[in-house]
Amino acid sequence: TSAKKSQYELQTLTGWLLKQEQSGVIDAELTIVLSSISLACKQIASLVQRAGISNLTGVQGATNVQGEDQKKLDVVSNEVFSSCLRSSGRTGIIASEEEDIPVAVEESYSGNYVVVFDPLDGSSNIDAAVSTGSIFGIYRPTEGCLANLDDDTSLDQQAQNCIMNVCQPGSNLLAAGYCMYSSSVIMVLSVGKGVHGFTLDPLYGEFVLTHSDIKIPSKGKIYSFNEGNYQLWDDKLKKYMDDLKDPGPSGKPYSARYIGSLVGDFHRTMLYGGIYGYPPDKKSKNGKLRLLYECAPMSFLAEQAGGKGSDGYRRVLDIHPEQVHQRVPLYIGSTEEVEKVEKYLA
Ligand code: P6P
Q: Which residues form a coiled coil (predicted)?
């Protein structure tokens, strides 16, 4: 029997990244970008866990481009994520849910990766200490994307144009992940070779490999939707939701689980199976979640783990973004569960 590994034998995220680089799965620049994201998430984890102590709960008193009240921690987490990425020297453009437009990174040394992120998703949960998370996607820079900076177009306008060309989730999304701030702090990421989970060991501040090669069960009995919007949904979706509640021959209907935090609801779906959905409704024709830094990274992970991410009719990863903050409906999780809702919506 393999002796249980001592806590110091577990593979760290740093060691895992170096292995991926040495085996040619990722290059040195992407390794540095992912390390800088790991640092940002550790810093955000400590901020989140001490929010009530360091007076970081509550609202900032401003609204973001989404028109949402910014929490103090939204702003701080965005600054942490941006500064870690800038100081990596390997990112060319960063786009954040908390920034109106994408930002060209002057300090770019090499690599020029394009990183999109939601620094603290589900931040409305912070004051109640319910799980939150950071979500990120890393796109391959297209050659010369920022090189030919013609001087009559502003750098940020060039960055915006670049984002629209570069951020093709189906072909250019190289890596994606999230860090969940919950009873454990867990970094889940993929560089295109499966999905792996790393738990932060607070004893020495390193992420250690705890979930190797995560696979979403092909079906599951948990659905995760905000049913408060039921009356605003399309009739086909209502029928789908009604049928989930039918106990059927087994006498056991599906279970409802919804915490109002995509990262927490999705992480449970990744491990237990089932489906998370944020459908369109009469208030929001394209649902609420943003394509670039929520739906695409999560769909990349879902597919890498053998699951699916759909807007109800097509792969999320096949959607070509038109706007940085573009919203799309999302149905994501076990393959059979996503295909089931697609059948109802057809
Ligand atoms: P609602 C958080 O604001 C978020 O973007 C996701 O993390 C979460 O799943 C969803 O919105 C919650 O939205 O409308 O159900 O409160």
A: none
Nearest to 207 by CA among 14, 8, 7: 14
Q: Which atom of ligand 1 is nearest to the CA of 118?
A: 5
pLDDT over 50 (residue 1): no
**How large is the ipTM?**
0.99
Q: Atom 9 (ligand 1): residue with closest C-alpha? A: 262
Q: Of 343, 321, 317, 320, give the one whose Cα is nearest residue 330.
A: 317
pLDDT higher for 221 or 60?
221
Give 69 Cα–ligand 1 centroid separation in angstroms. 13
Say yes or no: CB of residue 89 within 6 Å of ligand 1. Answer: no
- Phi and psi angles of residue 166, each rounded to the nearest 5 degrees, phi first: -80, -40
CA angle 317, 321, 323 (to 5 degrees): 150
Residues in CB range of 27: below 8 A, 6 or more apart: 21, 111
Please provide the average confidence, as pLDDT, over all residues in the chain.
91
Q: Give distance in angstroms: CA of 249 to centre of ligand 1.
A: 33
pLDDT of residue 145: 63
Does ligand 1 have an atom closer than 6 angstroms to the CB of 226? yes
What's the CA gap between 104 and 94, in Å, rounded?
7
325 CB under 6 A from ligand 1?
no
For residue 260, the CA-to-ligand 1 centroid distance in Å is: 5
Token couple for 316: 């999320």
pLDDT tens by residue, 277-324: 999 999 999 999 999 999 999 999 999 999 999 999 999 999 998 888
Helices (H) and strands (E) in the chain, counts: 9, 15
Distance, CA of 300 to CA of 317 (rounded, Å):
7
